[in-house]
Design a protein that fits this description.
alpha/beta; D-Maltodextrin-Binding Protein, domain 2; 9-stranded mixed beta sheet; two-stranded antiparallel sheet; globular
Length: 445
């Protein structure tokens, strides 16, 4: 839980620094998070545009600590996630500098570099080495063209979430390959009457139907784009992976019938409402599916997690997603904003928030730091889920970090949705590849 005694000490230090000249400098070695001593930016007010995620709410509650340490005030402007990108774009285009910090999804970053400040010089000055702190997939999600534009504070690997009781009733083991997943799903349906797995093939909501598709694609050795940024998802392996992905519904009848229109939320809810045994999804959903206020009792008492299945004889690959906070290019308070980023990205702050289970609104918070993913105390509070996430992140990658991705994603999500509705896989993927090739050529590739 949040340490109010610690905050009291910080406030006393702050008062002492005002009464005795030079105290802040003398205490420079004791300043946490690598923050500057002496409060050089005291009186600065920062505005942080962020979506109303659990992490944001937890950090917002702890801002008094940062202000006590630095004299910098921070206002959180929280908006729903679907509105976040539009708000960032509108502020970035206006260029007023009214907002100092943006929270952004990794795949948005390349198209927003004109609104963001590269952080490399700040990191070098403070000796911050990202590879010592974050898994590679999270670093890749904020680094474009050799420049880093944000620090991850919310990240999600994929896990297979499943019902232990339904697996026991069906007499099947947790699947480790896609073939085993199909077999387990069929057995569960036959012996329990529940759908084996809830998938989400419906278009919309920032291309969510590409998330699990990506794991099929990569585990089969296929790629979305080649090294010249041209589409190769319609290669033979790409077609095979896509067909397998939709055949969970179309051929094998292993997925919930509603999966054709489901998006991520609906798929998770199919499990929460005791209609399906499995879902492949971001790990934070485990907190939802074990929450009595969010899921049925029989579900909450029997949920567990496992790695995403691998392609038979070829390997495992998963997708990772992260949210980062960066500094607006138009901010008039960049140095103060960097102080805030150092506080926000510290593993000790993250651990405090992750282990605080007192507030139902923030109890689903998960870690992004390598140190915290393997921390025994954190894993004790999550049943070892953070270690499972660390294993997933070891084989994770991101969606292509290119400026054109939002447009490419739109083409692909429509193609996947059409295929799940019965359209010919090769024709749809070839059509999508033609459109994507035109997008990339228009951009100069």
């Amino acid at each position: 839980m949040f340490n109010f005694k610690k905050l009291l000490v910080l406030l006393l230090i702050s008062m002492s620094a005002v009464l005795f000249t030079g105290v802040g400098t003398a205490l420079s070695g004791d300043m946490p998070y690598g923050l500057k001593a002496g409060k050089p930016y005291k009186g600065t007010k920062l505005v942080h545009l962020v979506h109303n995620a659990a992490q944001a709410q937890a950090h917002n509650k702890r801002l008094a600590e940062f202000t006590a340490l630095t004299g910098i005030e921070v206002e959180y402007q929280m908006v729903p996630f679907p509105s976040l990108r539009e708000k960032i774009t509108a502020d970035g285009v206006a260029g007023t500098g009214d907002i100092d910090l943006y929270c952004f999804l990794d795949s948005w970053g390349p198209s927003m570099t004109g609104f963001l400040t590269p952080l490399n010089s700040f990191q070098e000055k403070d000796g911050m080495v990202l590879s010592d702190i974050y898994p590679p997939a999270y670093i890749n999600g904020t680094t474009y063209g050799g420049k880093n534009y944000g620090l991850p504070w919310r990240g999600h690997p994929q896990l297979l979430l499943y019902r232990t009781d339904l697996f026991e009733q069906a007499g099947v083991a947790v699947p480790t390959t896609w073939k085993e997943l199909v077999e387990a799903s069929k057995a569960i349906k036959e012996k329990t009457g529940k759908d084996g797995i809830a998938m989400y093939y419906g278009k919309g909501n920032n291309g969510q139907n590409l998330f699990v598709w990506y794991s099929f694609l990569k585990s089969n050795g296929a790629e979305i784009l080649d090294d010249k940024m041209m589409p190769v998802f319609n290669s033979e392996k790409g077609i095979e992976a896509t067909q397998y992905y939709v055949d969970l519904l179309l051929k094998y009848k292993a997925a919930s019938p509603g999966s054709k229109a489901f998006r991520e939320y609906e798929a998770s809810q199919a499990v929460a409402q005791d209609n399906a045994a499995m879902v492949i999804v971001w790990w934070w959903h485990y907190g939802v599916l074990t929450n009595p206020e969010k899921a049925k009792e029989v579900v909450t008492k029997n949920m567990s997690f496992a790695p995403v299945p691998a392609w038979e004889g070829r390997g495992q690959a998963t997708l990772a997603l992260s949210m980062a906070t960066g500094i607006s290019r138009h901010s008039k308070n960049k140095d103060a904003a960097w102080e805030f980023l150092k506080w926000l990205s510290n593993p000790d702050l993250e651990k405090d928030a992750v282990m605080d289970k007192s507030d139902p609104k923030t109890k689903t918070i998960v870690a992004v730091h390598k140190k915290n993913l393997i921390d025994p105390e954190i894993n004790a509070t999550s049943g070892g889920m953070h270690e499972a996430a660390a294993a997933s992140l070891a084989v994770s990658d991101t969606l292509p970090m290119i400026e054109e991705w939002p447009e490419v994603s739109s083409v692909l999500e429509i193609a996947i949705s059409n295929i799940a509705a019965g359209a010919d896989t090769r024709k749809e993927m070839d059509k999508a590849a033609k459109e994507v090739r035109q997008i990339m050529k228009r951009s100069g590739y």
